[in-house]
């Protein structure tokens, strides 16, 4: 299973993010954007993605993006070696089981241009954490029950950019 999100290396470089990116003229739907971006970034063909649903739109305060989180199941057993990373956009891929991530993350609060906001922090591995908008999307997907419905699910794709 993977969560795909539109984003931007220029705006969010160095952050843990899900595959995704901005809509292009050829993309008629967020699903098409998600499939195209996933293939461009990590070489995972959309033919192996099964659409499961959409999580709530995420407003990213710092960049002004409105992210449409598409939730999919990967219908093929994948190993890290199966992926082809776009080195301009992805430093590495972190594969993990979402059931191993704590359901009660630490909550951080911030202030940006006079607006207060909060975000969860989920420790992942190797002193790496999922935080900010990506962590809020992960929490929403968890709260919607996608992970509980996919007990046969083994790994989730996170990309470190």
TrEMBL record:
Q: Name the UniProt key words of this record, in alphabetical order.
A: Hydrolase, Magnesium, Manganese, Metal-binding
Keyword Nuclease recorded: no
SUPFAM superfamilies from the xrefs? Nudix
UniProt keyword annotation of Transcription regulation present: no
Concerning CDD domains, the annotation shows: NUDIX_CoAse_Nudt7
Domain Nudix hydrolase positions:
1-117
One Pfam match: NUDIX
Q: Which cofactor does it need?
A: Mn(2+); Mg(2+)
Stretch list, region Disordered: 1-28
The protein's superkingdom reads Bacteria
Which PANTHER family does the UniProt entry name for this protein? MITOCHONDRIAL COENZYME A DIPHOSPHATASE NUDT8, NUDIX HYDROLASE
This chain belongs to which protein, by name? CoA pyrophosphatase
Organism name: Dethiosulfovibrio marinus
Q: What lineage does the source organism belong to?
A: Bacteria, Thermotogati, Synergistota, Synergistia, Synergistales
């Amino acid at each position: 299973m993977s969560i795909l999100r539109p984003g931007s290396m220029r705006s969010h470089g160095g952050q843990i993010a899900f595959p995704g990116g901005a809509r292009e003229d050829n993309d008629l739907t967020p699903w098409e954007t998600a499939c195209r971006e996933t293939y461009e970034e990590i070489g995972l063909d959309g033919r192996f993605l099964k659409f499961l649903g959409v999580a709530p739109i995420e407003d990213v305060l710092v960049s002004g993006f409105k992210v449409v989180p598409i939730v999919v199941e990967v219908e093929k057993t994948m190993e890290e070696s199966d992926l082809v990373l776009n080195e301009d956009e992805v430093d590495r891929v972190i594969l993990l089981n979402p059931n191993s991530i704590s359901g009660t993350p630490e909550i951080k609060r911030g202030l940006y241009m006079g607006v207060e906001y909060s975000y969860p922090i989920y420790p992942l591995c190797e002193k790496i954490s999922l935080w900010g908008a990506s962590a809020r999307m992960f929490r929403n997907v968890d709260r919607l029950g996608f992970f509980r419905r996919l007990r046969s699910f083994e790994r989730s794709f996170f990309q470190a950019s």
